[in-house]
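Collaborator request log, item 7. Partner lab (contact: R.S.) asked for a structural prediction of Mevalonate kinase to inform their binding assays.
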Amino acid sequence: MKGPLFYSKILLFGEYGIIKDSKGLSIPYNFYNGALKVDENLDGKAKKSNQELLKFANYLEDVSSDSESEVTFDIDKLKSDVKAGLYFDSSIPQGYGVGSSGALVAAIYDKYALNRITVLENLGREKLLQLKRIFSKMESFFHGKSSGLDPLNSYLSLPILIKSHEDLEPAGIPSQTTSGKGAVFLLDSGIVGETAPMVSIFMENMKQEGFKNMIKDKFVKHTDACVDDFLKGDFKSLFTNVKNLSNVVLDNFKPMIPQKFHDLWKKGIDTNAYYLKLCGSGGGGYILGFTEDFEKAQKALSDHKLEVVYTF
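Returned to partner:
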């Protein structure tokens, strides 16, 4: 058995902000993917995945039996497949902010959810929100708290515009140009990040009036402007807003930026060669970069591994 492929995702804008109703824009990233497979001779990574799936199956059994649950699973089938050697064969790096658990959740829902909402249906706002709620519940097993957006992106394999908690839609993003110098890229921090501790730092900070006001007055404002500019293809305005956002993150989200990248972050803002922002919850994994001249950014970041995500 080999299931269909589910892709990684990149939240271009909206990390942390979407918890507080900012806009967000999430795109599939087809460079990494994963699929469910069965093998009776498991070792290493596959064995670990299989053990994790057994715990996940037990968790989903509770979700299934909840009378208010919007989803039920074929738990017997899932458990017998796990016993037979089911695992998630994935190239998506874990703890890197590109949705490794989201792709797994999408794959499990696709294969084992009863009465599932399929991608072929006419997915209006209500169905999208229902899927997001289901995925949020499922992915909470991995992170403690999940928006459900990563699995939704992986399941639909479409860019998604988040307008607010209760309003999201598939989005059309500007076509990439091969001739342009500008790029969105991933910078590998070389450190694995963990989502749950970062989210709890954020939630703790939200109890402080000053931090809460900064999120509302600066972080959400710049994030919303970035989303609008990107969708319109107004890259001149986008870079002004990304620079502002990069500054706000450096000033207020230091625990989420690995220590050795603080100076590099500031260097980008000071030289305008590139601007960095969080990719996912931060704390490690990938850092997202924006530049108007990728060659210039490459020179400035020559000690680091960069992957281009989008060109313009």
